[in-house]
Every structure is written in structure tokens, then in C-alpha cells.
Amino acid sequence: MDALANLADGFGTALSPINILWVFLGAVLGTAVGVLPGLGSSMAVALLLPVTLVLDPTGALIMLAGVYYGGLFGDSITGILLNTPGNSSAIAATFEGHRMALDGRAAQALATSAIGAFTGGLIATTVVAFGAPAFADLASAFGPEEFFALTVFAFVATAFVVADSALKGLAALVIGFTVGVMGIDTLTGTVRYTLGVPQLLDGVGIVVITVGLLALGEVLHVASRSRWQSGDRLVTVKGRPFLSRAEFREALPAWLRGTAFGVPFGVIPVGGSEVPTFLAYGTERRLDARRRRPMFGRGAIRGVAGPEAAGNATAGTAMGALLALGLPTSATAAVLLGAFQQFGFQTGPLLFARSGDLVWALIASLFIGLVVLLVLNLPFAPVWAQLLRIPRQYLYAGIAVFAGLGIYASAGSVVDLVLLLLLGLLGFVMRRHDVPLAPVLIAVILGPLAEENLRRSLTISQGDPAVLVSTPITVGIYALLVVAVVLALVAQVRRRRSADV
Question: Helix, strand or coil for residue 269?
Fold first, then answer.
């Protein structure tokens, strides 16, 4: 009952005219950025983060929540109409979605995607609304040893699962650690890795890091490749932007199954929603093979419904893990955690007690954002598709200018612009060598937290490292970590063997 009362108070705040405006703008801008190839939801949040710094914390985080969900749907529009998913989480839905589009059913594919995203997001957000406070209460019993174990789990699991090479994943972690600990050590006052630059004493701002690595790095990566003519493979959207009763009945079980895959994966730090979306796709394909007239390979509506619901369900519960545990389980969640820190909030079990009004308004805005996105995207998905016709050279030049202006406007520092360029070059090099970005962002955010909890644990135990595995919770977390690493290594070996055959 407390959750219902708190959620009602959250709706009271989120339904104010100004906050509804921020949700609407966030959904529109998130979809617009997400629909552009190569950008995606994490890029949308990173690129628009400087804009929100001029808002009050509640309005800024509500707007970013709209961007968060809007970017996910934009990813799928690109995949369905252009066969070029905007983000890796949209790959699974692209297989059958683009076949539907080529078969003249692009509108139905987009409608299936929109309703699937709404269904998965709605159920997951409901789980967050009623489950996150319980997780926060549980996490309040955690000590520094347990939080250190959680951060280690996030680091190692992300490095091994996201990257094709464990070595590249660990290298990305080292880069993130190095950037994250720059500045003055808060415990000892020691200056670290500043290279004698006074402006780096406070460290590198999370806004500069995310925009540089994600936005500017992508711009440089696109500029280094051959020219691309926009619109030459874009499928025209015709027909009704809704589903018939028979199509709805066909898609409904897949939406529910996809949501069931996505909800638990949102709290597992595997770097995003790629795993549950492919699990949902594989399940629907196996079920379809048992039917008298299999549809997979010819534009199966269930092949779009399952992955779309799984992707948004994962995003929804990832927000719960972020709020209740302070644990970012994807690159987008890491950027959002940086946004919380930018406004002076520390996510985790104490967030509900210290900033309950903001948290419940944010959760309520997630429900509102889902409705706004459904209203926007069912009839207007073809309009978003027209953004794909913008020549890429103009589009990415505009993104570079916007990124630079946003960073300079947020702090008025030329040093930040230099750092933006250096981080953009770093992001470009990492893309060229297939080094994943998610471990970098997670290490930047969680690195200082891991260091603080490690040092606190060792201080309390007078230097005894056994304290790190002194409780059942820490032993359980490390055991899960070992299992996750073994499974990831086995999967990598199998992929390499199949590639050699």
C-alpha cells in the first residue's frame, strides 16, 4: 500500500504541465535521435544530457527518462525500414521486421514494435514500482564488502559478456578506471593522473566523457568510412498503422513471452538487452517451426513482437536496478547514473529515503512516457522514417557542432572542449578495433565507488582481505560471477569453433 500511495504522489508531480512537457520532449527527441543509424538510445541520452543541465533535477531526469524509452523505439524503426538497426538491442527484431516491410507490411511491423515496446515497458515499470523499494530495503543491509562485490560483478560480467574478446573487455575496463580516478582522491587528498592541469583536479565530468566517447566518437567513425547515400534502401510505409484483431491475437503471446525474458535480465549486468532479445527471437522461431505453416523467414509478426517486448522490459527493470542498487546494467544505464551524480544524487538504497519525491515522480513519468510514445509512434512512425533521408554528412556534422556547443555551454571551459576532442578520438580508435564502450562507461561511474568500498572494508578489517568474502551474500555474488564468466568463455569458444568450420 505504501508503494501505491507513493506512486500516486509521484503521478501528482509528474502530471504537472511542465513535467508532461519534459516527458513529451524527451520522447520526441529520443525517438528522433534513436532512429538515426549508429546513434541509438545510449547516444540519445548522452547527446541530450548537456541540454538537461539547465533544468531542475526532477524535470531533467523526467526528460531523460522519456529520451531513454524513445531512443529504444527509434532503434527499431531503422532496423525495420532500412535493415540497419540503430542499436544492437534491435538486431533480433530486424530479421522478421524488415521482411514484413519488404512484403508491404511495414506499417504493421512498426505497430507490432510500438505495442511490444509498450507492453514490455509497462510490465517492467510496474515491477519496478512495486519491487524496487523492496530491493532498496534489502540493499540497505549491504555493507562495503557487498557493494564491492556487486561492482566487481558488474565490471567482470560486462567485460566478458559484451566483448567478443575478454582481453578487449578488460582493456576497456582499465581505460574507464583510469579516467574515473583522475583528480583529487577524496580520502587522502592525493592528486592523481592530472598531468599538472589544474582544471582536472575535480576529475573529468561525466557529461564530457559520455558525449565524447559516444557522440563524437561515432561521428569520427562514420566520417572515416565510405560515403553513404541516405534513403536509397528505405522502404515506403503504406497501409494501416495498427493491427487487426487476428494480428493482435497472433502477437500477444509473443509480447508476453518476450517480457518474461526481458524482466529478469534488466538486473543482470550483461551490458544491454541483446541476450534477452535473441532468446525471445529464438523461442518464437522454435515455436513457429512446430506450426503447420511456419512464417519465420517470410515476415513473422511474432519475430518482431517477442524481441521488442524483451528489449523494453530489460530497459524497464534496468532502471529499477539503477535506482534501488545503484548498479548500471548497460551503457545507457551508466549514462543515466552519471546524470544522477551530475545533480548530486547517489542512487542506491538510500535514494528512496533521501529523495523519495524525485524517485516516485521519475517512476510515474516512465508510465506517462510509455503512453506518450505509443500515441506518437503508432500513427507517426512513417514521419520519423523521413529523418533517414537526411544526408549523413550534414547530419553528423550537425551532431558534432551540437555536442561541442552543449559541452561548452554546460561549464564554459575550453579545457572541456579539448577533453571532448581527445575522448572522441579515443572512442573512434576503440570502434575501429572493436573495443566495447559499455565497460568504459561502467568503470568510469562505478570505479570510484568500488575503490571507496574496498578501502573502507580493508580499513575496518585492519587490512585483512578475507573480509571481502566474509558474508553469505558476498560468497553468493562471487559464485554467480564465476558461473557467468565460465558460461561466457564457453560461448566464445563455441563461436570461434563454428566460425572456423
Answer: coil
Mean pLDDT score across all residues of the chain: 79
Residues 399 and 221 sit within 8 Å (Cβ to Cβ): no
Strand partners, 330: 271
CA distance 243 to 245: 7
Say how far apart CA 67 and CA 51 lie, in whole Å: 12
pLDDT at 237 exceeding the cut of 70: no
Contact criterion met (CB below 8 Å) for 78 and 84: yes
Question: All 3 cell numbers of residue 242?
Answer: 495498427
Domain range for 485: 2-500
Q: Residues 270-288, buried b or exposed e (16+ Cβ, 10 A)?
A: bbbbbbbbbbbbebbbebb
Cα(454)–Cα(451) distance, integer angstroms = 5
What confidence score (pLDDT) does residue 134 get? Answer: 73
CA 361 to chain centre: 20
Domain tally, the chain: 1
Residue 426 φ then ψ, to 5°: -60, -45
Condensed to tens digits (0 to 9), the pLDDT of residues 348-359 reads 777 777 777 888
CB atoms within 10 A of CB 252: 16
- Only one residue has cell 506512486, namely 7
C-alpha grid cell, residue 362: 521519475
Query: Which residue type sits at 5?
Result: A
Which among 243, 34, 270, 8 is positioned nearest to 153, based on CA atoms? Answer: 270
| 231 pLDDT tier (thresholds 50, 70, 90) | very low
Answer yes or no: are the C-beta atoms of 187 and 452 closer than 8 Å: yes
| Alpha-carbon span 264 to 117, nearest angstrom | 16
Q: How far is CA 85 from the centre of its chain?
A: 15
Least confident of 45-59, 81-95, 140-154, 166-180: 81-95
Give the count of beta carbons closer than 10 Å to the beta carbon of residue 433.
Answer: 10
